[in-house]
Amino acid sequence: MNFKEFARSMRAATALAIAIALPVLGTPAAYAQSTQPAKPAQTPKQLEPSGRTIAMQGTANGVVACVTCHGASGEGNAAAGFPRLAGLGADYFEAQLAAFADGRRENAVMQPLAKNLSPGERKAVAQYFSSQPAPKGIRTEDPADATPSDSGAWLATRGRWQQDLPACVQCHGPGGAGVGSAFPPLAGQSAAYIEAQLNAWKNGKRPPGTLALMPAVASKLSDADMHAVAQYYAQQPSAEAGAAAAASQPASQTASQTASQPAAQPKADAGAPFQPPPESAMPGGDFGKSVKLGEQIFRHTGQYAGKFVGNSLSCANCHLDAGRKANSSPLWAAFVAYPAYRSKNGHVNTFAERLQGCFNYSMNGKAPPLGDPVLVALESYSYWLATGAPVGGKVAGRGYPKLPAPAQKADYARGATVYAQHCAACHGADGQGKSSNGQTVFPPLWGARSFNWGAGMHETQNAAGFIKANMPLGLGGTLTDQEAWDVATFMDSHERPQDPRFKGSVAQTRAKYHDTPNSLYGTVVNGHLLGSP
Amino acid sequence: MNFKEFARSMRAATALAIAIALPVLGTPAAYAQSTQPAKPAQTPKQLEPSGRTIAMQGTANGVVACVTCHGASGEGNAAAGFPRLAGLGADYFEAQLAAFADGRRENAVMQPLAKNLSPGERKAVAQYFSSQPAPKGIRTEDPADATPSDSGAWLATRGRWQQDLPACVQCHGPGGAGVGSAFPPLAGQSAAYIEAQLNAWKNGKRPPGTLALMPAVASKLSDADMHAVAQYYAQQPSAEAGAAAAASQPASQTASQTASQPAAQPKADAGAPFQPPPESAMPGGDFGKSVKLGEQIFRHTGQYAGKFVGNSLSCANCHLDAGRKANSSPLWAAFVAYPAYRSKNGHVNTFAERLQGCFNYSMNGKAPPLGDPVLVALESYSYWLATGAPVGGKVAGRGYPKLPAPAQKADYARGATVYAQHCAACHGADGQGKSSNGQTVFPPLWGARSFNWGAGMHETQNAAGFIKANMPLGLGGTLTDQEAWDVATFMDSHERPQDPRFKGSVAQTRAKYHDTPNSLYGTVVNGHLLGSP
Asked: What is the pLDDT of residues A340-372, one digit of tens each?
């Protein structure tokens, strides 16, 4: 938070100072004086107080009690723009204090306070707030029916993939509840705080953080976008704080209306892919209900079609932007390509049967029977997304990009390094992904809850193409081809559920279905025969 | 046959006179002298000889025995271009003799002979030849795999519907075997004869015949077309005659190659409908096999999908040109319109389910289950026909034209008159259609072997639109709107198989499914409650 932002927060805070009824050591207005604080004298290290003591009472070294500004329970002060601290991940919290202390994260108030905390004190206070429950009243679910005209809700839950801009929830979890230590909660943070942070990333005033995702995100957001998405999350915290935030931001309602989607900005290397109709054009009536249901199934497959799903994935994990995104096997391109012969099962498949294949393999489940409303809805949604696309046409952006063969043979060890650097923050060091509120946020890439050995993604050229085009989320195209091949090989060298077409032995199954250099099924990696129990 | 044509036949005949080994009273060459015969003296009516006697011996009145030129069994003389007489319908035969006699059908040889036969003698000889078996060796089936590059076979079996030109087989039956009295056999007729007749119709040298269909047909055929289609049927008769015809027409192979399809000529009132890909573009491989199978099922539904069909219809009876024809519910327009909600069954139907509806109602059968190869093939074929059509697009030419409401309320009695004049020749006075070689040529329009009360065609606005656009076959647009409404009402006022959704009583079924002025189900016509046993 730079001075200008801080001063703006102060104006709002002053106007609403009467609303603050917490037992604070001083009013927020009092802190306006500390924007240019005298530098505290360095003191020798002493016995460190507990995290709770620091939070509630401050330190003998002049550090003010955290609760002074951040609320008695660390719930934050929406009106003042002081963030919620309760329930933040300890690693994230500690890292922020370190960044304040050395000036990478600019904030005139926090810098001297953080500097006056020893590393041990920072850890202690981080652990304390991390252990505190999230403020009550935070909405933990996003509305099921966000519309593009509500640009804050849309950006938060759907993103803007024409610009490779992921939705907030894709990293911060449903409802912005936060995921792991890398992705802090957004729910319960005030609009002023969120908007200020987005501006800080856009202007280089905050460290780039995990995978430098947030500077990339913020660079794609207009002022109106930031305001709208901040308002969206401002409606999520506890009742009184939310009301205060709404009262303090009277201009927000009009501002959010101007946060319309900019013109599509397809990737330079993607040609001019087909553009599916905008969400706002989704039809109504009974057909529209089927289209909408299809979209919901596609985005939250376990929730809407759970009995056909055998893992933790959703269709949209591999078909980004709810099946809209070019070069991410978009539904519109698939719809116009069926019926077609598939060597995978040796006959002509209708689109419906192709969908069944996704359930049987990618979803490691049991496909709905033909005619099941789940399949009808998915077909309806796909058909609608394909509106105007030429039947049988080889539309640009279909499937995943076909990467040229790697310069060096794809390598597990190099892939492991790529994984650790670019993937583990989201998918976990163990590849098991991450969830929030019982919903998968980052899908498991291998193991019992991932796609099985019959899924297309288990073939390295498919995985490499997907990864190159789309990973890390929102940073598609940043890995080299070699890195994509290597990390795809690493991912697909791990064990996963058996191919449902298993022929009695791994060798027979490989001979029948996997006799290709792109499949590691039936090969030995690190002493383990892939595909064996 | 005018003089020029006759003389051309004679040149061919002379060249091959040696091939003629029949016990004739004179050689064909001898008849060249009779192109300007002396007018026989009129003789008083006398006891008429039998048809067989006339055929074998001629008459005392100077009429030469028919077999002299037409072969001992009435099999014709391909080399000379003298037509086959054996097995021709008696009514057709008699009408031709009458036309020769009064000069409406021009032929210098036949005119004096026909004039010298009394009406009774003409009837007798017509009946004699009608009772004779068709020449042996005639191919009774068309090749299953005609290709557009074989323009003769293509015109004979598929027509050229861009010009509203029906296939020969659509009236003359499979293999050109002939249908009823109005449509004589083509199989077993020589190329020279067929080509000459087509030219005669084109140039007004033959009476227009049934519904004036043949002048309309011939007007759409180029010289090369006529030659090609004549050659196609010239390959159909008995071995020796066919060989002779082939030898006599060495130019035919090259000529047929020039009989390519002209540029599409859409109807003036049809806008610019979508053009499906040409048959020559049909893909190969396994997918192509499914497409081809779909086309075969569509054209010969009983033959290729019999267990799902409960009547004598084929899909192509209502979807002309094998589902290609605009304004005849073309498959390409249907494919891009599904999934869609249908009030008929109250939910969103995929294209596959829509196809099932056709089997259950229009085909009065039991639909194949979803995923059945029959449905997959039909969907493949439809998809291929729709190549390049925009998904969800309202393509011009879809469905049947929506006729404006008739000026006068549609009327059964007027419809009966229209039917007798324009429809009965093909569909029969009893509406039961006509078949040949066990295959339906003209579909039954009502009764047990027609579509049931659940089919779309039982609704008068659908039937009127179809009829206006497409009936009589090849003469679409010739009926007035009023005539189309009247005859549709006449057709749909007849009994047909029960609606499979029958609700226990006609009244309940009407209330549930047919409560529309366009459905006569459940109304009383001529004292009969339609829909009751």
From this structure: 999 999 999 999 999 999 999 999 999 999 999
Q: Provide the angle, in degrees to the nearest 10, between the axes of the packed helices A191-202 and A3-15.
A: 170
Q: Could you list the residue range(s) of the whole structural domain that residue B435 is in?
A: 412-447+456-529
What residues pair up with A340 in beta bridges, in sequence order?
A349
Do the domain assignments include residue B363?
yes
Q: How many CB atoms neighbour CB A296 within 10 A?
A: 18
Model confidence, pTM? 0.83
- Among partner residues B340, B341, B389, which is closest to A390 by beta-carbon distance? B389
pLDDT attached to residue A437: 84
pLDDT at A266: 32
Q: Do A389 and B388 touch (CB under 8 A)?
A: no
For residue B14, being part of any structural domain is answered with yes
My answer on whether B298 and B376 are in the same domain is yes
Phi, psi of A441 (to 5 degrees): -105, -55
Q: Work out the minimum CA distance from A226 to partner chain B, whole angstroms.
A: 36
pLDDT digits (tens, 9 = 90+) for A380-434: 999 999 999 999 988 999 999 999 999 999 999 999 999 999 999 999 999 999 9
Assess if residue B267 is contained within a domain: no
Cβ contact, residue pair B350, A338, below 8 Å: no
- Residue with token string 């959703």: A314
Same structural domain for residues B519 and B462?
yes
Domain identity same for B170 and B240: yes
In this complex, the residue of A336, A340, A380 whose CB is nearest that of residue B287 is: A340
Tell which B residues from 340 to 399 touch A, by Cβ distance under 8 Å: 340-341, 347-348, 350, 352-353, 369-371, 376-377, 379-380, 383-384, 386-393
Closest residue in chain A to residue B374, using alpha carbons only:
A348
| Residue B52 CB-density burial (10 A; 0-12 exposed, 13-18 middle, 19+ buried) | middle
The answer to whether residue B395 sits within a structural domain is no
